[in-house]
Structure formats: C-alpha cells, structure tokens
Amino acid sequence: MNPIYESLLSRKSVRVFEKRAVPDSIKKAILDAAFQAPTAGNQMLYSIIDVTEESLKKKLSVTCDNQGFIADAPLVLIFLADSRRWLDAYEEAGLTARKPGAGDLLLSIQDAVIAAQNVVVAAESFGLGSCYIGDILENVEEVRKLLHLDAYVVPITMLVLGYPTEQQKKRKKPERFAKAYIVHENRYRRLEPFEHREMFEKRAGQPDFDFDDYMRKFCERKYMSGFSLEMTRSSAVYLKAFLDKSEDE
Fold first, then answer.
1. Which one-letter DSSP state was computed for residue 93?
2. From CA 195, how far away is CA 139, in angstroms rounded?
3. CA torsion sign, 238 to 117 to 203 to 217?
4. Could you give the residue ranges of the DSSP H alpha helices within 126-190?
5. Domains of the chain by residue range
6. What CATH number matches the domain at 3-171, 3.40.50.150, 3.60.110.10, 3.40.109.10, 3.40.50.300?
7. Based on C-alpha coordinates, what's the Rg of the chain?
8. CA–CA gap between residue 152 and residue 184 (Å, rounded)
9. pTM of the predicted structure, to 2 decimals
10. CA 7: distance to chain centroid?
11. What is the pLDDT of residues 109-120, one digit of tens each?
12. Those residues with Cβ within 8 angstroms of residue 9's Cβ, 6 or more apart along the chain or in another chain
C-alpha cells in the first residue's frame, strides 16, 4: 500500500510519550513540511510558536483544561492565525491598508490548520505521535498574556508531539462514521432522524449499543461541559477583539 496513504489511515492521537527528546534534525524537517503546506496566495497567514520553556508548557497544560500530558510532551507547537504580520509589512512599505476583517481571519485559520496537518503527516513519517489540542482557545485572557498576542493573532490549535509508548502504539484507533453520512453530493443534506441512530450504531459495531444513553452521556461530558462553554466564551472574545479592534485602538 502507498505508505503515505497507509499512515493517514492508521494515524491516531497520542497522549503518552517516551521520555526522549525529538532530535533537532527531525524538528526542522517537520517544520519545513509545515512551510510547504498549501497557503492562500503564498502568504503563509500563520505563525508558529515553538514552546521550549518547561514552565510555559506547564502553564499551558493548566489553561488547556488541565491536561497534564501537554507538560510532558517533548515538542509543543502552537499554530496562530496571523493577520498582523502582513498588515505590519504593508505599513512598513508606506501603505495605508484596510484593517483585517472576517474574511482575513477565516483565511488565516485555514492556512494555520493546513500547516498543522502537514506537521502531523510529516511527524508520522518519522515515527512521532501527535495530538491536536483545541483547548488552546480557552482562557483567552491568560493565554494572550502568556503568548504576547494582540487582537489580530488568534491561537487556533496546538500540537503536542513525541515518540509514542508501546501502549499508545498498540491502542486501537477509534472507528469513524461511515461515508454515507458524511459525504454529500452537490448539496448539503440534513440527515433524517433514523440516520443519526444508524450512523452511531454502525460506528459502534455493537448489537446492544444504546444510542440515547450514549448521546446523553456524551452531551453532558463534552458539549455541555465547563471546558466547552469556556472555549465558546473565549472564542467570542477573540472574534470581538478582531472585528472591533477594541483592544488595539
């Protein structure tokens, strides 16, 4: 099988790492892979923070929903949707450019996430495991101070990387939903009520799967959880500051 395709199918999130550093040569290689990712107009509308301070890792592990494995990760990279760098470059050239807007933010988010995924794929090829940390969006006030962010720079995702333990290597990858429920032809189609049950039952692959109980527990544990509500609050603060420029001007 094509090795790249095979790695995409087998890749799973890793949250426990061996206690060994990632060599500088491999770190450079996976960052170079990020730089080669598709990008809008070749602008590279993102910046990457390489977190090397152990104290900062520990603080981020707390602000990111108290996930201790972040502090133990050999490599921590934060991907920023960056609308500040090009604006500063325009001003350096003596131009009076418009302030960034919603379209600029969404485009920079795309660039940042695509670059992050290139890192994930490259890391797999070197035997490194990785885990996306969406919780970097939480606790906006503290994270802004820790990372020195202004209103035009938003931390979209964080990657923790390292060599997976044997237990993590052997851990089964969670099943995904079937294509029939995810891929729509030409237009979006809202699923029928019975299809939601089918979708989860097929993914579970268990004859005694209890859809209603599963959904109730998942909703309480994830969607209605404190960390989810905090992420929504902080995201709204990032968006308001970006669009209103209230904290810059």
1. T
2. 37
3. negative
4. 140-147, 166-170, 179-182
5. 3-171
6. 3.40.109.10
7. 20
8. 34
9. 0.95
10. 19
11. 999 999 999 999
12. none
